[in-house]
Amino acid sequence: MNILFKILGATSLRVDDEFDDHWGKRQERGLLGVLLVNSPGQRLSADELASWLWDTDSAAGRLPNLRSLISKVKTGLQNRRSPAEVRSRQGMYWIEVDPEAVDYHYFRSSLRTAKAASKEGRHQDALNLLDDAIGLWQGPPLSDLSSARADHWRLQSTQVMLAARCTRMDCLLALEHYEDVLDELEGSLAQDIMDPRLAILRMRALHGLGRVEDITPFYLAYWKNFQEMTGSEPPDSVRRWEAELRRGGSSWLPSAEVEVQPASPVAQYLPPQPWEFHGRQDLLADLTRLVDERSTGLVAVDGPAGIGKTTLVVQWAHQAVGRVADRVLFVELQGYTGGPPLGLGEVVGVLLAQLNVAADRIPSAEQRMIRLRQLLEQQRTLVVLDDARDSAQVREVLKAVSGSLVLVTSRKHLDGLVVRNGAYHFEVPALTEPEVFQWLHTELGARALAEPEAVQQLAAVCSGIPLAVRILAQHAATRASQSLTSLALELQDRRVLLKLGGADDEEATIEAVLNSSYRALETDQQELLRLLGRYPGRDLEIGCAAALSDRPAEVVSRALDVLVALHLIDRVDGERYQLHDLVREYAAQLPEPADVSDAALRRMADWAVWTVHNAASVIFPSRDPVPMEGFETRVLPRSFGDYEAAMQWCEQRRHDLVAVSAATRVHGLDGHCWRIGNCAWEIFRLQGFYAEAEDMLAAAVDAARAEEDLLGLAGSLNNLGVCRMLLGDLAGARRHVNEASHMFDSIGKSFGVHSCLHNLASCEMKGGNLAAALDIYNSALQLVSNGGEPFRKAGTLRRIAEVLRRQGRHDEAMVNCRDAIWIYQTIDDPRGFGDALAELAMIYRKIGDSESAYAYACQSLSVTEAAHDVDSAAIAAGLIAGVALDSGRYTDALRYGKQAVARYQWLRDAHGEADAWDVVAAALESTGEAQGAAEGRARAKEIRRNLGLTAIDP
């Protein structure tokens, strides 16, 4: 037992070996207790926390107090080095803690374990567990709180305690400790004597002691008192026990002859269970745990169409009969069948019919409701309300069945039931690919064993939707002669999968199921879903959706909320959304007028162009922007407040920008295509995503050529050349840059000619031809010396410094490098500044001034990290490691060498990674770690062997 927190009494926490229940003020202790009660992981809104603390349904006026309390609780836990942590996100609060470390949750866990042990006949083990668990109760739970909600929870928790004591007395009876049971019943439990469980325990104890003659008098007195106090007769189970024990039956288990079958059918109205049920064992277990200690309550189960909600609930309901319910009633509410959803009167009529009552013989609706409640009170009843339209429909029905255990299924988020009716919520997720793979293996048998790769592909196509798996498996079964590989290839087009299964029953297709959700949407929501199906990316944010639909963002946000509620799309975070794969295909094939679709795609492209243009303007403030003449638009693109926000957005939306770029090319929006590529490529390069950068630039070249925009074509060719140079394709780089240079010259754009000269010189330097590189750089410098373009001049000076350093002309190199640094500082270009600082550090290293080299390299790393320049930061880290190694600072050499390795791996720069491994190996060897040094050298050697190199590059 490792209890760290107590809520069974004053809320206390363990500090060292003692518990402190005065660690904070009463409300602070109360707040921690509430979070611990709702652990693990249950998230509470400010309103919910307020209702626990202050007996109010709203946090209005209390929010500052609540924030202060949360802050104090966080500080209190941190100061005491508690492993628990109070977390918050999007206005929700929870505590991360091991439930076994909280006495209440440990108590409940022990109770479950003890019950299982008792059922297995290990009564003494169960008794020991229960004694330890019951001993945890030190007073009224959550005694620091006095709100109505806390009182209600305390009442529930005392029922859990009573259940534990009943289980304990069951174990005592099994061990023939009859006197102990009577002592306990006549002691602290005497006030609860009307509880039927305690009455039965008393009669069993009397029977065990041989006092059979005392059983009937006790029962008659109990029956009279119960009737006087409650106005009704005791439960039939008490009478059955009395009759059985009076006749001499066992005091441990009742004989079969006294088991009375319920008057109404047990579960005949439930849909049949499937022959094979796959996965979901965790959800079945969660449902069982939830209702294990209570026979009433409301559980809301939702999930996308076809996810298997009804199958799951039916499977669990069949298992629940006899354990948590004596009978099951099932009503299909027809929320999404296409017809009108059932109203309260119709549901009451269905339920009465299942209870063998003719509703039409009861004259009024009110009397039918009363009769239904009377019947439901007679036995533990599980009521399954399947396919609810929304919370409002269910809330009406709850008026008739609220005293039962009610399970509701819906393809819509039933947030209203959770918030207003206290429902426990389960969302049924998609099956995992391994679960689908195993299911298909079971269904396909030997064919699956023969073609496992095809089964893997089929599993991926199903997107974890059980309905899709069933349809696909049945389809495969009807095509026994078709290879699974061929079938997997056919179904890569998910439009085929949408329509499978309709030959016998048109409603037995994924398309038909999604149609029913689509019909439930309003007209503008339907249009938005159709347009979302045309969006080429995976993640979409509200601004882009607003551009697609040509509606204000706040209107679109509300429509997106509806689509989320119906599980047609997922909310990734506060502003990003995703379509399920099959829903995307479904939405894309819904008919939409061509002019509407084309206009939506153009607005979406406008939004993407201007947003990535805004990002590039923030990231490269001193650069000439991509020309945007003729691209004025009414859409509202995203703007960025700082460098970090722009970089983060581009990284998160990388795949979407690539997809949008490709889509604009396909749909003839060539001006959009080359602008997106030229705005985004260098941002991607800074982040190490060279492949995406190259793909976008290649598309940009084709688009600009198709549009016959010479400026766009020249810029795209030039940038593609730089990208190819960075990827090691010097021949391709020279070809693209030379073509771009001629084009810039023909249209009189000197800045473009300079850029091309600069890039050609870089190609020569990368190829080892330093003299040619210096000549070209000097030519480029002449073009911009008086041209008023300082960042171009600074870049050329910095490159000239690099060539001079590599030629051994260190004094000249330092002059050019310092000139470049001064210009970068003047124009506030952090990326160029960090790059030039690294070059200055290299010069000092060459002339033997290790201290200056180390200082400038560290400054470069700091600047480039702040600028999110992964490439320059890798160079700076490697440079620090090398200088540290030269000067005997082996700890620093190892630290920064490992940083360089990680950065070069991220950049997929094998040359840089191999050089960094050399430094790491040398540092390890210098500190006596021979094994690590050998492994580092082996890694560097392997990398160079894969590159076709035999020695370190100069």
TrEMBL record:
Residues 102-246 form the Bacterial transcriptional activator domain. InterPro entries: AAA+_ATPase, BTAD, NB-ARC, P-loop_NTPase, TPR-like_helical_dom_sf, TPR_rpt, WH-like_DNA-bd_sf. It comes from the Bacteria. Residues 295-432 form the AAA+ ATPase domain. This is Tetratricopeptide repeat protein. It comes from Saccharopolyspora oryzae.
